[in-house]
């Protein structure tokens, strides 16, 4: 355990380098903008936007800028996993733009320089609530998809350990519990994301699903997936077979695999699920969790495991907890150790300015005039709760959002936190 803690303490010191706020925001913003190639056809939005849509080509010169993901490509690469409020923005703006941020660039550098003959490296994305951990993971998913990787994306592991509408005893192992609805939903999205691989990958053994159903050795993996979709009661076991086949065959060097898990700490936490006798269900009793834990091990190669820690769906943990040892607990920390921690902080000055201008461009910020909140000026905002301010802004349009003073008020109220900034900006 001492070795694990020592490794955790030492590593972030190196990784956190460079996250300090810029001291001269306007000068820094201008210098970064000057690095992008200007074209005569560029629109004013170029000040916060980059035309480079391939994540593999993103570098420090694109940091703080938005890049556009074609909507059809987004449906194929990320059919699930995008934050709800980001999905709402896509519907409103009629486009999907993702900001290029330093944590994602750091991960891209690691993945580009990985020796895939070695055991997989585990990466743990962490940070305070609302800093953009899920969007960083989605950026990595897009990167690997563009590179031709097979992607195993678990968009919210917490959904597997709480509010499950249907639990049934596993036919394969009587000591485990299946979740057919969650399993079939995941299989459907997995098929959408990895359609070409399902024809290329062949099963290495015969699988018997029942008295009449079986999949012979050498058949396309797509047939296994279809078994889970047409016979939903077998879906949990099908997920296990899919993960097993991919894990074994990736090590042969045929294809690379990204295992992307949002809220990985759920795999070692407590559940809200109950058995028929009302006794609590532990995570390891769930077939889906049992098989996913195997993918978290580093006993295979030719891939990478990128995960996030989540406070939002973390059960029985303090809302302020965000560090790996706090959310993973001893069991989870030891299971993932050694891992590379990736901190996602609040917006830098550059990123805040870019986000603000993007919202202006999309007319997400419209009110140019408004009253000040009585008793809640900049000198007394500390005495007002975030929910009180948000409610007042939405009902009275109290923030002059498009002015310089309004921008500074937004910066102050949000603390440059992406999630809080979006919540504040939404009703303005």
UniProtKB/TrEMBL annotation:
Signal peptide: none annotated. Keywords: Mitochondrion, Ribonucleoprotein, Ribosomal protein, Transit peptide. Belongs to the mitochondrion-specific ribosomal protein mS29 family. It is found in: Mitochondrion. The keyword Membrane does not apply. Transmembrane segments: none annotated. One of its GO terms (biological process) is mitochondrial translation. This is Small ribosomal subunit protein mS29. GO terms for cellular component: mitochondrial small ribosomal subunit; nucleoplasm. One of its GO terms (molecular function) is GTPase activity.
């Amino acid at each position: 355990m001492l070795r694990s803690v020592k490794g955790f303490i030492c590593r972030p010191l190196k990784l956190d380098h460079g996250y300090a706020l810029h001291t001269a925001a306007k000068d820094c913003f201008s210098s970064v903008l000057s690095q992008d190639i200007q074209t005569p056809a560029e629109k004013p939005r170029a000040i916060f936007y980059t035309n480079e849509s391939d994540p593999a080509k993103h570098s420090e010169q694109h940091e703080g800028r938005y890049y556009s993901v074609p909507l059809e490509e987004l449906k194929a690469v990320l059919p699930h996993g995008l934050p709800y409020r980001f999905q709402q923005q896509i519907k409103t703006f009629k486009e999907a733009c993702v900001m290029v941020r330093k944590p994602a660039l750091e991960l891209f550098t690691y993945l580009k320089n990985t020796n895939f003959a070695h055991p997989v490296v585990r990466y743990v994305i962490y940070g305070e609530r609302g800093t953009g951990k899920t969007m960083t993971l989605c950026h990595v998913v897009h990167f690997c998809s563009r590179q031709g990787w097979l992607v195993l994306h678990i968009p919210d592991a917490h959904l597997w350990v709480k509010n499950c509408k249907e639990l049934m005893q596993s036919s394969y192992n009587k000591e485990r519990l299946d979740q057919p609805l969650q399993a079939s939903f995941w299989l459907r999205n997995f098929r959408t994301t990895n359609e070409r691989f399902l024809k290329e990958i062949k099963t290495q053994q015969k699988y018997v699903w029942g008295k009449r159903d079986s999949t012979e050795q050498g058949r396309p993996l797509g047939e296994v997936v279809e078994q889970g979709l047409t016979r939903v009661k077998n879906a949990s076991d099908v997920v296990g077979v899919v993960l097993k086949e991919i894990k074994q065959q990736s090590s042969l060097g045929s294809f690379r695999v990204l295992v992307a898990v949002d809220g990985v700490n759920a795999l070692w936490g407590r559940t809200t699920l109950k058995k028929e006798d009302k006794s609590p269900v532990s995570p390891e009793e769930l077939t889906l969790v049992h098989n996913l834990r195997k993918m978290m091990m580093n006993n295979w190669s030719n891939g990478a495991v990128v995960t996030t820690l989540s406070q939002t769906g973390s059960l029985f943990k303090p809302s302020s907890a965000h560090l790996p040892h706090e959310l993973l607990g001893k069991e989870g920390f030891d299971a993932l150790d050694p891992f590379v921690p990736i901190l996602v902080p609040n917006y830098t000055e550059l990123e805040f300015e870019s986000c603000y201008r993007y919202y202006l461009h999309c007319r997400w910020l419209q009110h140019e005039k408004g009253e000040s909140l009585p008793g809640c000026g900049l000198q007394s905002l500390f005495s007002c709760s975030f929910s009180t301010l948000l409610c007042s802004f939405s009902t009275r349009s109290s923030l002059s959002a498009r002015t310089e003073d309004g921008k500074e008020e937004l910066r102050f109220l949000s603390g440059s936190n992406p999630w809080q900034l979006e919540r504040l900006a939404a009703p303005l």
